[in-house]
Amino acid sequence: MKYLFPFFIVIYLSITPFYSFGQKDKASMRTGKTSRPEKCWALGHPFIVKKTLRLTKEALQVADSIHRAGILKGSMSGGQPDAFKHAYWMALLVQDISAKKAFKLGKAHEKGNYLTYKKAKKKGLADSHNKLASEMDLWNNGKGIEIGVKNKDVQETQLQQIIIDSIKSGAMRIILNGSLEKSDMTGSSW
Fold this sequence. Notes:
It contains 7 helices and 2 strands, in the order H-H-H-H-H-H-H-E-E. By secondary structure, it is mainly alpha-helical. The longest helix has 24 residues, at 99-122. It has helices at residues 4-15, 36-44, 49-69, 80-96, 99-122, 131-150, 156-169, and strands at residues 173-176, 179-182.
């Protein structure tokens, strides 16, 4: 029986989307499927997979709400809401699991995005998740981990506001006009 447990986790992960950060462009190909690096992470952390899925869905829902409300500028792919999405996701994970596990999951996610990018490039859809987007995501993941560590016991609404303030102060990174910029680009055109 103990040998079947990892097998059931793999089956569960292949039918349940680990997460997709709401990228709906045709090139992204991230349709909610769990990438190989994410599955490997999950196999190494079988007892927190369900909690991680719940926190991931929560982070996506909150980020989408903030985007729809217009609290942050730009798109969910490269703009301030994207920075929020990554930072909030990592901060939530730090509060409930640990900074190290959150960091490793964030890296696994970006590795999965890179593998997806390589596949898309072969099919002529190279606009999906490029190196710049990966750098931005990793930076914002790191800031989210820092915020989560410093604010381990704050409520979720407070955590959201801390991250929004951090974005507006320029501590996060966004993609603007094809380059990585500080997230406080208040005078720029979006």
